[in-house]
Amino acid sequence: MALLETVHDPARLRELSSEELRDLAGEIRAFLIDRVSASGGHLGPNLGVVELTIALHTVFDSPRDRLLWDTGHQSYVHKILTGRQAGFDRLRNSGGVSGYPSRQESEHDLVENSHASTALSYADGLARADAHLGRRDRATVAIIGDGAMTGGMAWEALNNIAGGPDRPLVIVLNDNGRSYAPTVGGLAEHLAALRAGHGPGVFEQLGLGYLGPVDGHDISAVQDALRHAATSVGPVVVHVITAKGKGYLHTEANDLDLGHAIKPMDPETGLALTSSPPSFTSVFGDKLVELAEQRADLVAITAAMAEPTGLLPLQHRFPQRVIDVGIAEQHAVTMAAGLSMGGVHPVVAIYSTFVNRALDQLLMDVALHRRPVTFVLDRSGVTGDDGPSHNGMWDMSVLQVVPGLRIAAPRDGARLAELLAEAVAWEEGPTLLRFPKGPAGEDLSAVATFNGLDVLRRSGSLDVLIVAVGALAGLALTVAESVAAQDVGVTVVDPRWVTPVNPAIADLARRHRLAITVEDNSRASGVGSAIAQSLRDVGVHTPLREFGIPRRFLSHGSRAEVLAACGLTARGITRAVAGLLTSLDAAPAGIGDLYTRSVPAGEKR
Q1: In the chain, what is the straight-line distance between the N-terminal and C-terminal CA atoms, in Å?
Q2: What is the pLDDT of residues 427-438, one digit of tens each?
Q3: Which three-class secondary structure string do you get for 261-322?
Q4: Cβ 518 vs Cβ 545: under 8 Å
Q5: Displacement of CA 461 from its chain's centroid (Å)
Q6: What pLDDT score does 369 carry?
Q7: Rounded distance, CA 451 to CA 504, Å?
Q8: Mean pLDDT value across residues 448-469
Q9: How are the residues of the chain apportioned to helix, strand and coil, as percentages rounded to the nearest 5?
């Protein structure tokens, strides 16, 4: 029997010899390569922390001792060692384990941190709580990558941790020289100096204990350093050097990202199992290069994710016009404001879920100053397999409150290219485009335009108006087809620019019996809510129903599965529309006047 088959909890590791632990590390790597190749996921980061994770679980007693992973995508080995091997058969799929720590899965997962640079703040709070309660029977251990250390929040936490020299806390710095891409800036250079033995380092200068550098692939060496750190009376940094993607040819040879996040692939060849059609991301990247060739003032900014956000083509064409700030979204946004003040037009390419971290900067540093900065939010709406923290389901709710910000939601690749050109040409204030992860699909041409709205379908009487937002335009057209098959007239429009709300929507809604909105954003304060408010403001009483994402965190699964769980399917929306029309027809005389006047099919308002 393989050693891994005997490991159902961390206690088993403390029964194994040093040689057996080394053998176990090899089995874990083979397990990771097999399972992650089948499902896709964060392979490289986890191949790099196999020995480190084994050492952590032999020295510390989880869950009594708290292990906090930053960022959480490096927790696969931790999950394997805490009884979740079976769940890897459906990794990041419905019914399988999440790609990040999950409190629902295990008591060994305390923090579900999939946004970087947070673990030290959690750890500081836990250490302070133990001091307050007089508890000395458990340890707090934060495992943070050097990439996550480029985030300002990590340094805010370090500043406070160093101010408590009598509070025990172990900080394991997992230094592999990378986040998604190579770590950038002065910190990267400083850590390189520490790796070369040139000190003292910044941690000691802050007053923290420092152990290292330690070979992160030598289990015994890491164990010795961790045991020493565990006896410290104050906070101590254990500087561990690891190699991302270690032990697998196809990750070690991947110069771009060392297999950071792979798609399902053949583990023998390292080739993807399926080819990828053009994505929204790739359309954006190509169009940005075209625009940059026309405008020397265009510069792009990324927060450590040039390739995932589509900036590699621009980086290859104009290397000096892509700025990587590391995992520092707040700095990226305010720096963009400064670039704009200096005569440059910045394009800030970022995941939708991460723009939440820079709301204050977007609001006060960009919008208040009416700076023409363009934000491009990838992974908006439902991403699915990355789990609750990576869905970009809040951007249109949160950012609609920003004065002067214009928001566009392209429905296809052609519209993305058009809207990006319009966005960077706008000089009166900030603009923002948002689109989902995945294929751009076929272009959906308009059959007509109406005061800035694209009309995608117009058939029959003026019964139902469907306002299709962004990538759900295809779903809206499928709903329209089903509704029309029931001898109901239907109009489908795409606003293109969803904020501010186009007054033409109210003009159309006034003429229809029922209006609905379809969006892959939270229903709470989303586009549908903004349209409903705009109708009330001008006295349009046509009933409106918003279809969107409910106000809850969504479990991981495929995009289609998650959308279906939210009721965003053609069948579900069609049935709801039919029910709404029946209710309108059956409304008692006089009651409808409280909300709307039921208008016979075909009559104009």
Answers
A1: 76
A2: 999 999 999 999
A3: CECCECCCCCCECCCCCCEHHHHHHHHHHHHHHHCCCEEEEECCCCCCCCCHHHHHHCHHHE
A4: no
A5: 42
A6: 98
A7: 6
A8: 97
A9: 40, 20, 40
Q: 590 falls in which pLDDT band (50, 70, 90)?
A: very low
248-298 tens-digit pLDDT? 999 999 999 999 999 999 999 999 999 889 999 999 999 999 999 999 999
Q: Residues with catalytic annotation?
A: 244, 329, 357
3-state SS, residue 22: helix
What tokens appear for 68 in the block? 């906090």
Residue 598: per-residue pLDDT = 34
Q: What is the pLDDT of residue 588?
A: 67
Token representation of residue 44: 């490289």
Query: C-alpha distances in angstroms, 49 versus 25, 60, 215, 536?
Result: 10, 16, 11, 56
The encoded tokens of residue 445 equal 């041409």
Task: Return all residues near 155 (Cβ < 8 A) that are at least 6 apart.
Answer: 149
In three-state secondary structure terms, 434 is strand
Which residue matches tokens 């200096």? 342
DSSP E strands, 186-286:
209-215, 235-241
Q: 326 — alpha (psi -120 to 50), left (phi > 0) or beta? A: left
Q: What is the pLDDT of residues 526-543, one digit of tens each?
A: 999 999 999 999 999 999
Question: What tokens appear for 316 in the block?
Answer: 């290859």
